[in-house]
Automatic annotation (TrEMBL):
It holds the Pfam family Bac_DNA_binding. It comes from Nocardioides renjunii. Transmembrane segments: none annotated. The lineage of its organism: Bacteria, Bacillati, Actinomycetota, Actinomycetes, Propionibacteriales. This is HU family DNA-binding protein. Residues 1-28, 62-82 are annotated as: Disordered. Residues 1-12 have a biased composition (Basic and acidic residues). GO terms for molecular function: DNA binding. PROSITE patterns: HISTONE_LIKE. It comes from the Bacteria.
C-alpha cells in the first residue's frame, strides 16, 4: 500500500486478519479505539500508545491573519486541535 490511503474499513479488515476477529468485531474495535481517543482528547488528556506514539491537545492562540482574496486583516479565534507525536519505534519502522 505504498503511497496510498487506508480507510477505516481497510483498517478493520487488517485488524480482523491479524487478530482472528470477525470483520464486524474488528470494525467495532477500531471504532471503540477512535472514540476512546476522541473522548480523552476532548477532556484534555494525553493518550500514549507505547511503541506507536502520543496523541495530545494543542492550543492555538488567537491571532490576526489576512484574507488571501482581499488582503484584508481578519481576526482568527483561538482553537484547540489534536496533535500526534510518533514514538521512536514508529520512526525507526518508517525509516528502515
Amino acid at each position: 500500500m505504498k503511497g496510498e490511503q487506508m480507510n477505516k474499513r481497510e483498517l478493520a479488515d487488517a485488524v480482523a486478519e491479524s487478530t482472528g476477529l470477525s470483520r464486524s468485531q474488528a470494525e467495532g474495535a477500531v471504532e471503540a479505539v477512535a472514540e476512546a481517543i476522541s473522548k480523552a482528547l476532548a477532556a484534555g488528556d494525553k493518550v500514549t500508545v507505547p511503541g506507536f506514539g502520543t496523541f495530545d491537545v494543542r492550543e492555538r492562540a488567537a491571532r490576526t491573519g489576512r484574507n488571501p482574496q482581499t488582503g484584508e486583516s481578519m481576526d482568527i479565534a483561538a482553537s484547540r486541535s489534536a496533535g500526534f507525536k510518533p514514538a521512536t519505534a514508529l520512526k525507526q519502522a518508517l525509516n528502515g
